[in-house]
Each structure stands twice: as C-alpha cells, then as structure tokens.
Amino acid sequence: MAYQILVEAPLPEWVVDMMGGEYELHIFAADMDLQDIDGFFIYGHIHVDGAFMDRMPKLKVISNFGVGVDHIDLPAAQQRNIPVGNTPHLLDGATADMCFTLMLATARNLIIGDRFARSAAFTHYDPTILMGYEVHSTTLGIIGLGRIGYQVARRARAFDMEVLYHNRNTNPKAEADLGAQYVPLDELLERADFVSLTTPLTDETRGLIGRRELGLMKQTAILINVARGGIVDHDALLEALQSGQIAAAGLDVTEPEPLPRDHPLLQLDNVVIAPHLGSCTRQTRQAMAQRTIDNLSAGLEGRELPNRIA
Ligand code: 8YV
C-alpha cells in the first residue's frame, strides 16, 4: 500500500510529479482522521505541536520544505522518536540575494520610484527627486551570521561595505574570509547603516529588535528582515518608521504573515515589503522540493534523513 502523506495545502503539480506517484496525499482539514498518516510534508508554516503529532500514531517522519522550523515543536518530535527534516544550505544564496534586493530597493527608493515613473505626476525629469542612501561603502550589521548571514557578508564585500556581526557564537571563518567583525549587539545597532536579520526565531530571538534597539539605530539606518517576523516588535517598528527614528525597513517576513490588510505598516512609503520570497527562485524551490522529498522517503523507509534537524 502507498504511504499516506499529510500535506497542509495542495502542492503544486510539479512537486507532486517529483514524488513520482509513490504517495497518497491527504490535504489537511482540522477535523480529519489522521490515524493512518505515515509522513507529514510541511509546505508552509503550519504550527505542529505534540498534540498534533499524537493524532498521527503511525507518523514516521516530518519533512519541512524550508530551513526554519520554529513552527514545529522539535522536543515533542524527539520525545516521540519522529525525525524532522529540513532544507539547509540550498537556499542560502537566494535568501542573501533577497536581503540585498531589499537593501537596494529601500535605500534607492525603487518601489516609490517605480510607482512615480508610471504615474501621471511624472511630467518632467528632476535630478533631485527621491534622493536615496548609498549602499556601497557603508556599514552592514548582520544579526545572526550563520549560513545565510555568511552569504550576505560575501555580497557586502563586493559592495565595499564594512561588515559587523552579532551572533551567539563568533564565526571565525567569516572573520578570516570576509573580514567580518564581531561586536556586541548595541554597538552593531549604533554603527550600522543597514541592520540585517538572518537569525532563526527562537525563545532568545523573539522580539529581539524592539523599541530600545530601534532607538539605538541611526536615523539614516535601514532595517532588513529576511528571517522571521517575530524577531521584530512590529508596534515598535511602526513607531520608529513613522517618527523618523530609522529611515526605512525592507521586510520579507512579518508576524502575522500576511499582516492584516489594514495594518498601518502597509501604508508607509518607507517600507518595502515582500510576501516571503527569500528563497523563492525556480532553482532553489526545485532543490528544496527534492530535499524535502528525499527526507520524507528516508524517514518513511527508516533510513537516516539527508538533513535531519531533530
Ligand atoms: C520558505 C523559509 O519560503 O526556509 C525557510 O525557513 O522561510 C523559506 O525558505 C518556506 O519555508 C517555505 O514555506
């Protein structure tokens, strides 16, 4: 009998094709019977706790399409001997590219410039409209210098940027290869022209960037978040952007996601916002889908997962 796989939402046809017709897919509904589920393919960020796992007594593996697993209770999975797979490494370059996309778009007024260039208001060329901030030759502060942060730092070198970082542990490789300098968090916030977040969301990092931290940043500084919305206190961010405490924000992620349609952050011109596109390129999505399927099939067959996070 084919393995019974739970998916939280319909998968795109190309992902289903990659599975090779080996699995019977069940799309999650709150009241469905999950007794016969063998594997869970997590496609978005559905919250999975121990009680959810207990509804699936035959569950052999949880395979997450993505690297961040803050939506999965890992200790609960460990207690139940359910391996959890994710997709590290594959998306580092794409996510770092998105970090730079947001840096450039916010600093150089790309989105309001685009809107203006299409509008009836653009009647003559004016050399001093929408003057932006330099990106090259400025200081970048990376909070969370892991795999993605390293790729951000590499790109920053090509932009002649000074790279500061703050992390739980120092990153000697980034220091040696890229000249990144470890500094305390407050010093990073005070010195950086761009503060970029590439840290996982954990109990330690939830709300890490709040009123006090935004208050330490320069009034010309720009905050970029390609990590998780929960790292930033959105009320404090709104205040900082409205009062001019910081210059702008580039957000690929928010909490909640999406923000309510009437959220005031969506009204601000000094915010560039994307619908969580960090790793969303054709090549990276393809690689992520393959790794998620490989983790799934390994777990189902009792083999070691190619990428096991718990
Ligand atoms: C994905 C991500 O878009 O990997 C992650 O942690 O947030 C993104 O790469 C997401 O996981 C897919 O739902």
Essential attributes:
single chain; 310 residues; alpha/beta; seven-stranded parallel β-sheet; five-stranded parallel β-sheet; 12 strands; 33% helix; 15% strand; globular; binds 2-keto-D-gluconic acid
Report how far the terminal alpha carbons are from each other: 28 Å
Low-confidence stretches: none
Q: Approximately how much beta-strand content do the residues carry? A: 15-25%
Query: Helix coverage percent of residues?
Result: 25-40%
Shape from CA axes?
Answer: globular
Distinct small molecules = 2-keto-D-gluconic acid
Oligomer: single chain
The strand order across the widest sheet is: 8-7-6-9-10-11-12
Strand count, sense and closure of the main sheet? 7 strands, parallel
How many individual helices? Answer: 11
Give me the secondary-structure category. Answer: alpha/beta
Written as H for each helix and E for each strand, in order along the chain, the element string is EHEEHEHEHHEHEHEHEHEHEEH
Radius of gyration: 21 Å
Q: Overall pLDDT, averaged?
A: 98
DSSP strand tally: 12
Description:
By secondary structure, the protein is of the alpha/beta class. Helix content is 33%, strand content 15%. It is built from eleven helices and twelve strands. The strands form two sheets. A seven-stranded parallel beta sheet has the order 8-7-6-9-10-11-12, with helices on both faces. Helix 4 crosses helix 6 (147-158). It is globular, with a radius of gyration of 21 Å. The protein binds 2-keto-D-gluconic acid (8YV). 2-keto-D-gluconic acid (8YV) is lined by residues 44-45, 65-68, 91, 276, 278-279.
